[in-house]
Amino acid sequence: MTPRTRLALTGIVALSLSACSVLESDKIDYKSATKGATLEVPPDLTQLSGDVRYNVPGGVASAAAFEAGQAQQSRTSINAAPKSIGDVRIERDGNERWLVVDRPADKLWEPIRDFWLENGFVFTLEQPNLGIMETDWAENRAKLPQDIIRQTIGKVFDSLYSTGERDKFRTRLERGPNGSTEIFITHRGMQEVYTSSQKDNTIWQPRPVDPELETEFLRRLMVKLGVPQEQAQAAAAAPVPAAPSARMETVGNVPVVQLAESFDRAWRRVGVSLDRTGFTVEDRDRSKGLYFVRYVAPTEKKEQGFFSKLFGSSDKATGPLKFRIAVRSEGGQSTVSVLDDQGAPDTTANAQRIMRVLADDLK
Fold first, then answer.
1. All domains of the chain, ordered by start, with CATH?
2. What backbone torsions phi and psi does residue 338 show, to the nearest 5 degrees?
3. Looking at the predicted structure, is the pLDDT value of residue 92 above 60?
4. Tell me, what's a Pfam family for it (predicted)?
């Protein structure tokens, strides 16, 4: 029986007892999915909606959680001054927000790690040398209906309930000038959908990135780092307009993404996009404008269906390929391109796919 089916059956019982259901949409209460059968999203799949297919994840494991109000976002000037409280401030650019903390990265690693554990997550990736940590897929249990049935027997049979959504978060720390640290939090989401009108089976597919959820965790992290609740709320709530859009071009037979912005902004936006779309970043060199990434190339077999043709496995599985994502800037213009493992411009179909994924996310 699928999670959705269990939830539907429980709802029928609840209705038969005339219980009222209230959706607690203003709270966050995560419980991490157990390790094992994971929901892994190859970078190519994050931009598709109709034909992607995933394994159903494992069950739900108990973990610490807490509740807090979620800030509602609106939009204002991109040039608004960043909000600063003590040695912590929040910066904004388009729909992206990040923290700048006047402390060295090695002093922030453990507090940030504790922060995610306190929020009910477990980690699938921890790389202090690169300043990257990534959580496992987790479910926001606060989205479940709080009816009388769940309040009474839900504590015993909690696995009967499922939201049909999973989230994971990547945190990236970058060393800034004068000993400061920039902290980025990026979100990836999945949702469970029915495969037929009979609603007897489900699949998992990507759902859009949630910038407001990213901002909410940045706000909570500000509190963890010593900022009072009300001040953190006010600092995170100030909105901004969209950043300049990206466009994909071909220059000298090389696929590129062009951004009408300086290197600092382009470097930051590309880094966030790589995090959001699930690339494995093995290293980075800001001085040379390079991200070193791994990419799983799709395979093709004539007898396979659409999804399998593009992103499935073949008899001879292709391992991860290594690329470099280069950010080059001149004046107020920046160009993003793919280099092969030796640093030469890449013109293959894989480079086209990578640029398309980044361009779609940067738009």
1. 1-242 (no CATH), 243-363 (3.30.310.170)
2. -110, 130
3. yes
4. Lipoprotein_18
